Amino acid sequence: MQRRVVVTGIGVISPVGTTVQQAWKTILEGKSGIHKLGKDFETLPCQIAGLIHENGERIHLSNYYTKTELKSMGPATAYALLAAKEAVEDANLQNADAPTKTRTGVAVGMGMVDLDDICKTNDALRKSYKQVSPFFVPRILPNMSAGQISIKYGFQGPNHAVSTACASGAHAIGDSFRFIRHGDADVMVCGAAEACISPLAIAAFCRLRALSTSFNDSPERGSRPFDKLREGFVMGEGSAILVLEELEHAIERKVPIYAEILGYGLSGDASHLTAPHSDGAGAILAMQRAVEDAKIKLSDVGYINAHATSTPVGDAIEIKAIKSLFGGHAGNLAVSSTKGAHGHLLGAAGNLEAVFTVKAVQEGVLPPTVNLETVEEEGVNLVALTQQKWVGTNKRIALKNAFGFGGTNACLCISQFSN
Q1: pLDDT tens, position by position, 239-287
Q2: In angstroms, what is the C-alpha Rg of the chain?
Q3: With CB atoms 3.0 to 4.6 Å apart as the test, which of 162, 259, 364, 410 could cross-link to 109 if both were Cys?
Q4: Is 166 tagged catalytic?
Q5: Would you say 410 and 350 are in contact if contact means Cβ atoms under 8 Å apart?
Q6: What are phi and psi of 49, to 5 degrees?
């Protein structure tokens, strides 16, 4: 009998909140976590981003870590550890016994390293070899979030990291799902982290013509998936961590269950470095494979949390792919993108949005697409502006899409839990 995999813990630190409860509340209220950047960005076409705020100002990691700790880890790893703390405690794993730790793994990815860290270290080398930090390499390795979490909690199962651009977080969750289903672990702490907002990163994405540039004076309006005025994405930072667990193991531990992971699909566009295939073939394959892996029918799906980043081409192709795959059932689907509220967290996008998908199937509430004022796409409910009640299905089942540069695609099938 195939092992079932459920979600037993969640942790979030993001532009829309520094806890799961706070982030979900902000999403459902349709509020924005996009802010104006500082003077270092004044000469750039894009001057806005989804920044983590706490008590009205940008989060200070020094409130959570010592100077020594911050020397040995990059900001993305620091975010991952904070999100992991909430998730691990939520799943009651913080004091796990030795056998449980042996069968608990970590899979946490990252899309991009901190370019600012690299620039500063290069400047230090120009002054003197001895100015280069001995922690520089550990700070920029994409697998260090997974390593640090494993070390902190003593988890000795699979230690895995994923770096597949903007699909990293979804791939980390999907890989973890398979580790458990195939017996490599009983529990996986998984997700991704991103902290690469810097003048160089913003400038680089601007040169790609990928970012929003017309809303610098109204940051909260800059990220607008599916809207007629969309022109590019808004970068974000943060981390989201999920605890996945084999069902019988979770029942034995008597921990609450949020949702069930039913399936996982992957594909490659084999088309272009930065643009999806024009007919949505890669997205179609990923969604189709997730549905097949879940052993459900297309008509069982009631909601899709879209990758939709607020780019003119990408959003349209994703809707085209959904309509092509689901055919007549597309009119019964709800599709939304929460990126309108928190921006695009690059490698940590799929996992943060997977959290909101889990909450949607758990509570029966569809998160809105913020800033969707003029709908161009017909025939699909895009949950414009305000939350909606989930109606029309006996068992709530959703897909979570995540696509990345290089043509890498992932899709998770997430279901309301019923034993």
Answers
A1: 999 999 999 999 999 999 999 999 999 999 888 887 777 789 999 999 9
A2: 20
A3: 162
A4: yes
A5: yes
A6: -165, 160
| Cβ neighbour number for residue 111 with a 10 Å cutoff | 27
Tokens representing 255 are: 């921990």
- 369-416 confidence digits (pLDDT tens): 999 999 988 889 999 999 999 997 689 999 999 999 888 999 999 999
Asked whether the CA dihedral 318, 322, 323, 325 is positive or negative, the reply is positive
Give Cα separations from 123 to 43, 119, 333, 385 (angstroms).
22, 6, 52, 46
Task: Report the C-alpha gap between 285 and 276 in whole angstroms.
Answer: 13
Enumerate residues 6+ apart whose C-beta is below 8 A from 130.
none
C-alpha to C-alpha distances, 342 to 34, 51, 339, 353, 407, nearest whole angstrom = 6, 8, 5, 10, 23
On average, the pLDDT of the chain sits at 96
> Which two tokens mark 133?
């930090």
Instruction: Supply the angle between the helices 349-363 and 168-181 in degrees, to the nearest 10.
Output: 60
Of the residues 35, 160, 166, 196, only one is catalytic, namely: 166
Of 160, 344, 411, 413, which is the active-site residue? 344
25, two tokens:
């509340």
Query: Hey, which residues does 235 pair with through a beta bridge?
Result: 344
Burial of residue 128 (CB within 10 Å: 0-12, 13-18, 19+) is exposed
End-to-end CA distance of the chain: 15
* Total-model pTM: 0.97
How many CA atoms lie less than 13 Å away from 56 in the CB half-sphere? 0
> Is 307 one of the annotated active-site residues of the chain?
yes
Q: Tell me which of 190, 307, 411, 413 is the catalytic residue.
A: 307
Q: In angstroms, rounded to a whole number, what is the distance separating the alpha carbons of residues 105 and 306?
A: 28
pLDDT along the chain (419 residues), means of 10: 94 98 98 96 98 92 95 96 98 96 98 93 95 94 96 98 97 98 98 97 96 98 97 98 98 97 94 79 96 97 98 96 96 97 98 98 98 91 97 90 94 94
